[in-house]
Each structure stands twice: as structure tokens, then as C-alpha cells.
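Changelog-linked ticket: zinc ion example.
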Amino acid sequence: MTTLAEKKHMSRVAELGCAVCRRMGYEGTPAELHHPRALAGGWGRSSHMDVIPLCPEHHRGATGLHGLGTKGFPKRWGFTELDLLEDVRGLLG
Ligand SMILES: [Zn+2]
């Protein structure tokens, strides 16, 4: 189930553009939504309020979260997916 509030939140997050590109100074890269695994609370629990916007490369590509994994990603970039989530929360207020 996705509530209306979650849908609204997710579209606002997507409109921010990729959070990794943003940290490199490129705002507004078209993004898809990543659901952080660290926060996934078990079967069927919604984490739609914790989504992170990532472009296809930084989501599923060789330099992305899924490509590098949760350990490789911070090594490569110097920040974690939770740091990116904090960015998103800060931007949305
Ligand atoms: Zn990106």
C-alpha cells in the first residue's frame, strides 16, 4: 500500500534530482527512487518516506549504490546512503 502522503513525498523527492550528482555540483539530474536497505524494517513495512533520488548510474550503475554495495559505496564516495537521506530531508524541510 502506498498512501497519498507517500506518493506526494516521493514525487517531491524525485524532483530534487540525483543526490550523488547534487553533491558533485550537478543539480536536477533525472532520478529514480532508491529505498535504503538499512532502513527496511521487515516484511511489508513501507519505507516510502525514506526514499533517495538517484540517477540510473548512481542507482544501478558501476558507481552506484547497487553496483558498489553498502560497503563499497561509502569507500568510493566518502558518504553513505543515510547521508544522502539527510540531504533530502534538509532540502525538503
Ligand atoms: Zn547521479
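Closing comment: Example verified and attached. The pocket of zinc ion is lined by residues 18, 20-21, 29, 54-55, 57-58 (CB under 6 Å). The first helix runs from residue 4 to 16.
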